[in-house]
Amino acid sequence: MYLDEYKRWLAADLEDADLKPELSKIEGNDEEIKDRFAVALKFGTAGLRGVLGAGTNRMNIYVVRQATQGLANWVKTQGGSQTVAISYDSRLKSDVFAKTAAGVLAANGIKVRIYDALMPVPALSFATRYYECNAGIMVTASHNPAKYNGYKAYGPDGCQMTDDAAAIVYDEIQKTDVLTGAKYISFAAGVEQGLIRFVGDDCKKALYDAIEARQVRPGLCRTAGLKLVYSPLNGSGLVPVTHVLNDMGITDITIVPEQEYPNGYFTTCSYPNPEIFEALKLGLELATKTGADLMLATDPDADRVGIAMKCPDGSYELVSGNEMGVLLLDYICAGRIEKGTMPANPVAVKSIVSTPLADAVAKHYGVEMRNVLTGFKWIGDQIANLEAAGEVDRFIFGFEESYGYLAGPYVRDKDAVIGSMLICEMAAYYRSIGSSIKQRLEEIYAQYGRYLNKVDSFEFPGLTGMEKMASIMQKLRDEPLTEIGGHKVVKVMDYKKPEETGLPAANVLIYTLENGATVVVRPSGTEPKIKTYFTTLGKTLEEAQAQKDALAAAIEPILK
């Protein structure tokens, strides 16, 4: 079957000039052909994600057309505005894929609102809501290496598509021939016919206004003298992040020159992920040189932000997503109480794999903390529930340990633009009172205990990787762990059992140990990895780290 499909592609008159040479090069190489054609990229609630190239198991204009035809078939059953919003980041072919998707939608009589230049995930979520669209498309592979691209689908609420809708779209995709099944007109024809229009300045301004309205202490940054180094990691964050920071009065911003402008090859770091040191290395060097108070980096689609804070001795320390989530929650709560802007019965939301330290902080300030499944759409879902009840203003903050933050209901996905704004405002505030982010973090640990949260991951590449991951998870269910690292397991939560968790089913296991530590095991939703999350609590960092190391050593052989 896969050889027949390969030959069909090889014989076709392919519009993308990069594809035919690749197909010719692998002629006679069964392994390479199989890798590209034995399976198709699966469309799920995270959309599509894959390596760029030729074939059904690669990201290319034909796979994008097929996916968009499936989406169009679903949109046509939805009534409403019959409009789809589109945005894209700096990845290779992102603009091509975005315009290709627009051409398919227009050919199906569906109106399109597309950004005239790369813009991040939050901008797509906002435009989807602003124009009352049926759906949204974001062309990105987030923080994956340069050889990847992807296609995220959003529902009318600006949240990533629901499981039910994604299943319908997937069924429609499977009915659509990848090379010939999608209706298509050129982008130019769609514009001429009035079906494709650009996102207006009114929408862009409304997004910036919505973000800036969430300042905790408006005006503070104009006089705080904060000195910042910022890297958009060659992605889509440069324009929106600097726009908002300039508006709030932060003007001493040094951009990392090698990472300033869009570059889908990400030549300065193989993995443009603000969670990892290599991505922040150039920024840290520049921060040291300029004496910046803060170094900040957003990922290519600018939905996540990582930072390094200046310590009293002049060195810089990376702040984890869990630590920043706790710091922002603490800052927002204290600041809004002080300013009298805290709503009645405030609600914060975090994922089940994020630090329990946030629960303790929320309790201290009288905030209800809701814990949801991993994936920011579940945080968006909680905001939607509040909105449906006419109580959307109760939502003050949501976060995931993987550097995703949101502090308002104006979008339904994580937003590195508001994350950057609030981190800078927080840094400026602590600077203005003679303190620092580092000092505040130490005060939080002194008050609540030394929580340590660490994530390890195990990769399972290739066609057999998913099967191997599934068998490991199944074995953990068939043969439950009774102890980890010498500590007795006192409770196992299996999130495949919604009747026990009260949440939708998910492939997650959480082990609670007799010493209070927790170990979470879950396969990634977007990469061939099993992730393990460790939470330990010690009197000192060293004690908490020693506990984590012992637990990790005990878990590792099980996940090989």
UniProtKB/TrEMBL annotation:
<dbReference type="Pfam" id="PF02878">
    <property type="entry name" value="PGM_PMM_I"/>
</dbReference>
<dbReference type="InterPro" id="IPR005844">
    <property type="entry name" value="A-D-PHexomutase_a/b/a-I"/>
</dbReference>
<keyword id="KW-0597">Phosphoprotein</keyword>
<dbReference type="GO" id="GO:0005975">
    <property type="term" value="P:carbohydrate metabolic process"/>
</dbReference>
<dbReference type="InterPro" id="IPR036900">
    <property type="entry name" value="A-D-PHexomutase_C_sf"/>
</dbReference>
<dbReference type="Pfam" id="PF02880">
    <property type="entry name" value="PGM_PMM_III"/>
</dbReference>
<dbReference type="InterPro" id="IPR005841">
    <property type="entry name" value="Alpha-D-phosphohexomutase_SF"/>
</dbReference>
<keyword id="KW-0460">Magnesium</keyword>
<dbReference type="GO" id="GO:0000287">
    <property type="term" value="F:magnesium ion binding"/>
</dbReference>
<feature type="domain" description="Alpha-D-phosphohexomutase alpha/beta/alpha">
    <location>
        <begin position="220"/>
        <end position="308"/>
    </location>
</feature>
<feature type="domain" description="Alpha-D-phosphohexomutase C-terminal">
    <location>
        <begin position="506"/>
        <end position="549"/>
    </location>
</feature>
<dbReference type="InterPro" id="IPR016055">
    <property type="entry name" value="A-D-PHexomutase_a/b/a-I/II/III"/>
</dbReference>
<feature type="domain" description="Alpha-D-phosphohexomutase alpha/beta/alpha">
    <location>
        <begin position="321"/>
        <end position="448"/>
    </location>
</feature>
<dbReference type="InterPro" id="IPR016066">
    <property type="entry name" value="A-D-PHexomutase_CS"/>
</dbReference>
<dbReference type="InterPro" id="IPR005845">
    <property type="entry name" value="A-D-PHexomutase_a/b/a-II"/>
</dbReference>
<dbReference type="Pfam" id="PF02879">
    <property type="entry name" value="PGM_PMM_II"/>
</dbReference>
<comment type="pathway">
    <text>Glycolipid metabolism; diglucosyl-diacylglycerol biosynthesis.</text>
</comment>
<dbReference type="GO" id="GO:0006166">
    <property type="term" value="P:purine ribonucleoside salvage"/>
</dbReference>
<feature type="domain" description="Alpha-D-phosphohexomutase alpha/beta/alpha">
    <location>
        <begin position="41"/>
        <end position="177"/>
    </location>
</feature>
<dbReference type="GO" id="GO:0008973">
    <property type="term" value="F:phosphopentomutase activity"/>
</dbReference>
<dbReference type="InterPro" id="IPR005843">
    <property type="entry name" value="A-D-PHexomutase_C"/>
</dbReference>
<keyword id="KW-0479">Metal-binding</keyword>
<dbReference type="InterPro" id="IPR005846">
    <property type="entry name" value="A-D-PHexomutase_a/b/a-III"/>
</dbReference>
<dbReference type="GO" id="GO:0004614">
    <property type="term" value="F:phosphoglucomutase activity"/>
</dbReference>
<comment type="pathway">
    <text>Lipid metabolism.</text>
</comment>
<dbReference type="Pfam" id="PF00408">
    <property type="entry name" value="PGM_PMM_IV"/>
</dbReference>
<keyword id="KW-0413">Isomerase</keyword>
<comment type="similarity">
    <text>Belongs to the phosphohexose mutase family.</text>
</comment>
<protein>
    <recommendedName>
        <fullName>Phosphoglucomutase</fullName>
        <ecNumber>5.4.2.2</ecNumber>
    </recommendedName>
</protein>
